[in-house]
Amino acid sequence: MLQTKNLQHSYTKGIDFVYPDLHCDANQQLLILGESGKGKSTLLHLLGLILPIQQGSVSINGIETSELNSSKAAAFRANNIGIIFQQHQFVKSLTVLDNILLANYYAKKSLDKAKVKQTADRLEISDLLHKKVYELSGGEMQRIGIARALQNEPKLLLADEPTSNLDDVNCERVYQLLADTATEQKAALVIVTHDQRLKNKIANQIHL
C-alpha cells in the first residue's frame, strides 16, 4: 500500500532530512518514532502529498505520486489518504459536524452524516457534533481530527501524534479505533509520534 525509496527533503540549500525506505502493506501498521526536530511531521506531509517530492519516490496503492500534478495529487489525497494532523486544520466558523463532512466535500462525495454519527459514537464525541470547534478542549479536537480522517474510508491512514494529548484511557481507545479501522478498511496505518506508550502495541517500528 505504501512504499518509499531514497526520500529526502530540504527547507534550505542543504539537505535537512534523509529518510529510510519505508514499506507498509494493507492491514499493516508502521510506527515511526523520534524526538522533536527529527523530521517526523515533514515525513508525514510528504507521504500525505502535502509537500512536493524533491528527491526519491512515494508509491501509494501502486501509484507513483511524484508523477501527479497538484490538482491530481489533491484529488488522490482526498479519496485515498486520511491525515490526522498534530495542528488541527479546522474551519472555526463551522460546527464539528460540518468540519468532519468537509472530508466528503473535498473528495466530491455525498455528505455521509451516518458515517459521522457512527465514528462519533465510537469516539464518544456525539454530544460535540453541533458545537463550534473553538469550544473544544485539546483532547476533544484530537478526536474530531480522527473522525474527519476516517470519513472517506482511506486506504492509507497517517497519524501525526494522535495520542500525545490524551490520557491513558483515551490513548488506548484512540489507538484501538485506528487499528480496528485500518483492519476493517484493509488500510495501511502509519503513526508518527514520540509517545512511548505506543511502542509495545506496534511491532513494525522505525526510529528517526
TrEMBL record:
CC per GO annotation: plasma membrane
Q: Is Calcium set as a keyword in this record? A: no
Is Zinc given among the entry's keywords?
Answer: no
User: What range(s) does the ABC transporter domain occupy?
Assistant: 2-208
* Keywords carried by this UniProt record: ATP-binding, Nucleotide-binding
One Pfam entry for this protein is ABC_tran
Q: Give one GO term, molecular function aspect.
A: ATP hydrolysis activity
Please name the PANTHER family in this protein's record.
Answer: IMPORT ATP-BINDING PROTEIN, TRANSPORTER, PUTATIVE-RELATED
Q: What is this protein called?
A: ABC transporter ATP-binding protein
